[in-house]
């Protein structure tokens, strides 16, 4: 590809830095040094334009100043300071529009019309992060389910559908069969876990456990806290730190439960959203992590834990199970607090097991962003790429 546009509309207008926003910002960061014509674009209400100064700052300010200097990202984004509207219909062959977010409303209708027209020469690719709003609506708020099937039907119109796991690719194909939607064969391109640092695991007691994930029902924090309480009641000593914002401001079940546990003297804390630098410090302090999620499109916190030499207690099913199968994880039935507590107990009480799983995680090969970009820019993409 000679030129790649990336739709960064929602990410450029939020300070949240989890899930999709984390992926989009990484794409901006690594794409900036990958190719000259890697252009972030923003929905204006009528079409797409270059990001404003404030939007450019929100795309990159989460990264350290050192990364800015090393990659020249501020200078790169400032090239697009002039406001201009983009006419995608007249973009030539060799141009790609990447949609890594979940568009809705007028933006989705515009992209839908663009994808359906036979007048364009530009290729379109979209990332299908997961289909949980369709396949598991019980875990999805009404506001997020609304219009989601329309978005999935839009995916059937683009030339390339990129999924982060084979589980998500299989769900996309199931949607196609059940809803009668044609479209591209999915390409499986797992998300790179980034440039985390490996630290020697601390052995001081009590051991520290880290859980990274947005507070929402499917992330299953309630079962984690129940499992932790079972262990504390037995007299097992450890501290537990949860990191992640609340999905909804009025979602108080987990913060209230943490407050209740703290009132009993339990060593548990919820830090909300933290910076990348703060997250690295938490990984450095942790003996291992727990990721109790019931369903994921990929499960990036598991990979980020393993690449830093931190074993993870997690599910052995679905997309997370794909990651766990490569080594470094203690898999359990995460929906069962008893099994979850047993897995956590094993890692707390068996240092040899922790060390073995840490070695397994560190020995694994993981995709890099450079490799991910190479697959994206390939003229003939390989749909058979698998999970590390």
Automatic annotation (TrEMBL):
Give the InterPro entries listed for this entry.
Glyco_trans_1
Does the keyword section mention Transferase? yes
Query: For this protein, what is any one GO molecular function term?
Result: glycosyltransferase activity
UniProt entry keywords in alphabetical sequence: Transferase
**A UniProt-annotated Pfam family:** Glycos_transf_1
> What range(s) does the Glycosyl transferase family domain occupy?
202-361
Matching SUPFAM superfamilies = UDP-Glycosyltransferase/glycogen phosphorylase (SSF53756)
Q: Which PANTHER family match?
A: GLYCOSYLTRANSFERASE WBBK-RELATED
Protein name, entry field:
Glycosyltransferase family 4 protein
Query: What organism does the record attribute this protein to?
Result: Puniceicoccus vermicola
């Amino acid at each position: 590809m000679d030129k790649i546009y990336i739709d960064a509309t929602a990410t450029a207008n939020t300070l949240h830095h989890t899930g999709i926003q984390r992926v989009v910002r990484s794409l901006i960061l690594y794409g900036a040094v990958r190719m000259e014509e890697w252009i972030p674009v923003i929905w204006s209400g009528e079409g797409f334009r270059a990001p404003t100064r404030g939007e450019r700052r929100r795309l990159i300010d989460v990264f350290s100043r050192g990364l800015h200097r090393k990659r020249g990202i501020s200078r790169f984004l400032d090239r697009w300071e002039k406001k201009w509207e983009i006419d995608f219909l007249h973009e030539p062959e060799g141009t790609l529009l990447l949609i890594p977010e979940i568009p809705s409303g007028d933006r989705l209708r515009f992209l839908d019309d663009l994808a359906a027209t036979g007048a364009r020469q530009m290729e379109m690719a979209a990332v299908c992060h997961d289909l949980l709003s369709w396949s598991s609506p019980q875990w999805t708020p009404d506001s997020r389910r609304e219009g989601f099937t329309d978005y999935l039907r839009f995916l059937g119109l683009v030339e390339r559908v990129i999924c982060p796991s084979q589980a998500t690719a299989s769900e996309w194909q199931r949607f196609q069969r059940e809803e009668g939607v044609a479209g591209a064969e999915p390409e499986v391109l797992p998300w790179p876990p980034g440039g985390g640092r490996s630290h020697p695991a601390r052995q001081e007691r009590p051991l520290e456990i880290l859980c990274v994930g947005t507070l929402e029902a499917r992330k299953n924090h309630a079962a984690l806290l129940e499992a932790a309480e079972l262990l504390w009641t037995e007299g097992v000593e450890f501290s537990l730190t949860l990191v992640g914002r609340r999905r909804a401001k009025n979602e108080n079940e987990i913060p209230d439960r943490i407050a209740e546990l703290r009132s009993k003297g339990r060593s548990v804390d919820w830090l909300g959203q933290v910076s990348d630098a703060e997250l690295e410090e938490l990984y450095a302090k942790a003996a291992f992590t727990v990721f109790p999620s019931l369903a994921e499109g990929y499960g990036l916190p598991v990979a980020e834990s393993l690449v830093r030499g931190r074993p993870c207690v997690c599910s052995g099913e679905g997309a997370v199970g794909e990651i766990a199968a490569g080594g470094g994880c203690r898999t359990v039935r995460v929906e069962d607090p008893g099994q979850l507590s047993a897995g956590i107990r094993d890692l707390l009480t068996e240092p040899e097991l922790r060390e073995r799983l840490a070695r397994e995680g560190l020995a694994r090969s993981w995709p890099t962003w450079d490799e991910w970009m190479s697959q994206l820019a390939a003229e003939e993409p390989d749909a058979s790429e698998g999970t590390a």
